[in-house]
Each structure stands twice: as C-alpha cells, then as structure tokens.
Amino acid sequence: MVNLVALQMTSAPSVEENLDTVANEMASAKIEKNSLVVLPECFAYFGGKDKGQLAVAEAKGEGEIQRRLSALAAQYQCYLVSGTFPVKTNSPEKFSAACMLFGPNGDVLADYRKIHMFDVSVNDNTGSYRESATTEAGSKVVTVETPIGNIGLAVCYDVRFPGLFTAMGDIDILVLPAAFTQRTGEAHWHALLQARAIEKQCFVVAANQSGVHANGRETYGHSLVLSPWGETLAERKTDVGLVSAKVDIAERETIKQNMPVAEHNRFRSHFV
User: Fold this and answer.
1) pLDDT by residue (tens digit) across 186-216?
2) With 0-12 CB in 10 A as exposed, 13-18 as middle and 19+ as buried, what is 169?
3) How far apart are CA 237 and CA 193, in angstroms?
4) Which residues 6+ apart lie within 8 Å of 58 measured at CB?
5) How far apart are CA 135 and CA 234, in angstroms?
6) Which residue range forms the structural domain that includes residue 152?
7) Left (φ > 0), alpha (ψ -120 to 50) or beta: where does 77 sit?
C-alpha cells in the first residue's frame, strides 16, 4: 500500500512562512515512510507581484527552498513533489516553474518545468493572466520510475492538454500541483482531473492552492486523490491542510486487463 498525500495551502508572498507551513503540516500528520506528498503550484511564493517570484528564484541545486524540501524528504523518508517554485533561467527577466520530485534520501529524482502557460482572461477580480510574461515555458515530458510506481509530473494548466498525458506513456500515478482559480476551478477542476485519471487508468494526486491570497487572487482548493476508475478517494474542500488515501497500485492491472484502453488506442502521440 502507498499513502498518497496532497497538501492544500493558501500560500503567502513569504518563502519562509510557506516553508514553515509545509514543515508543520508534515509534522502534524506524521508522514509515513515511502509516502508520496504533493505540494501545490507556487507553494513557496504566491499572492505578491509577478516580479516577486523572480526575486526569490534559485539556481538549480542551490537555495533555501531546495535545501529544506530535500531535508523534509529525507527526514520522513518519503517522496516529496515540490509543487512549483521559481528557478533561474538564462534570462534575467524570466524564471521557470520547477516541479521537482525529491526521493526518500533527499536527492532530486525528477525535474519537470511547466510547459503550458496560463495566458487567459477569466471573469474574476484578477481578470487577465499572462504567465508567459515572467515564466519561461518548459519543453520536456517527465516521468520517473520509482519503487512506489511510475510517476508522471504535470502542473495546473497542463491538465487541459491531453496530448501531454498521452506522451507520458503508462504511468501509475499522476501528480498535479495547481493554483486553479476559483472561477475556473468550480467549472472544470473535477471534470478535468477525472478525465485524466480515467483515460490514463492511473491514480491522480492533485494539490491546489485555496482561498483569497494577499494580492486578492482567489483559488479553488478541493485538493484530491482519484482512483484509476475516476473515483474520488479523498478530498479537502477549502481549508488548509493535508488530504490522503492509501492505495494499492496493483489495482491498476485489473482495470487495464478488463479495459485495455492503451492497446486499443489508434491515435498515438508522436512523442510515444
């Protein structure tokens, strides 16, 4: 059995405060060895000006954010998905949204950079979102084989682009850190995540931001764990904290044998 955990946060524009929240929540839950813990998008800094993330961006392999996440993974001997945090690029005007997987010994096992930029208009109090103005998009599909299963990494807006998940091939667990807005979340969050779980026949761990942030931005919450059949195994509505479910990864095999969707698919991605 594997314990799948999502941490729902109302992150502030303070790296130290947010890191302390993660540490305190993990301590209160007494995270089990070999659990998979997923943090939300922008967990380390959220609710400030866009330039604020650039100011706290770290070089890969350096900095307080990576040091403390590595230490927490090693302390609890768990797999810890960093949500996203800003990592420096070659451009002084842009950072990349890094989603790293830390292993039970604290090492970085995978490093995914968010591919799809949230450049949209939403009927809320923010109105216009232009993520590409400060964020450099990634280009690589990332999966990683671990002792608890094959894990695919994606972030927030990525969930709307099924080709990305086709390109991942067979995965046991999909992790999706997010900062889904209140308006788009109430319309599409559950439907999109359920669709990804069903089409990939995999477990989904989705950790979302929640509530009203320092800059007035509203996020939806409803972090959850889904089964390969699309069932909700656990969900946290809007309050901050952990949500978890213990699962048997081998359950996927029965579903795949009874309904071999991947074998029947006649429209394969060119990435596969």
Assistant:
1) 999 999 999 999 999 999 999 999 999 999 9
2) middle
3) 15
4) 64, 65, 66, 85, 86, 87, 88
5) 32
6) 2-264
7) left
Residue 270 lies in a domain: no
53-92: pLDDT as tens digits: 999 999 999 999 999 999 999 999 999 999 999 999 999 9
How far apart (Å, rounded) are the C-alpha atoms in residues 114 and 139? 8
Residue 221 lies in a domain: yes
272 pLDDT more than 50: no
d(C-alpha 1, C-alpha 178), whole Å: 25
Answer whether 193's CB lies under 8 Å from 205's CB: no
Q: Token digits for 95? A: 């950072």
Ordered alpha helix ranges (H), 30-87:
50-56, 64-76
128-137: long-range contacts, CB 8 A cutoff, minimum separation 24: 129/181, 131/157, 133/50, 134/50, 134/51, 134/53, 134/54, 134/93, 134/94, 134/95, 135/94, 135/95, 135/96, 135/97, 136/89, 136/91, 136/94, 136/95, 136/96, 137/96, 137/113
Q: What is the pLDDT of residue 218?
A: 96
What is the C-alpha to C-alpha distance for residues 84 and 156, in angstroms, rounded to an integer? 10
Confirm if 34 and 272 have CB atoms less than 8 A apart. no
Residues with catalytic function? 41, 114, 156
| Lookup: tokens for 30 | 């007494």
> What percent of the chain is modeled with pLDDT above 90?
93
Q: Does residue 163 surpass a pLDDT of 60?
A: yes
Does residue 271 form part of some domain?
no
Domain total in the chain: 1
Determine how β-strand 119-121 pairs with β-strand 108-113: unpaired
CATH of residue 84: 3.60.110.10
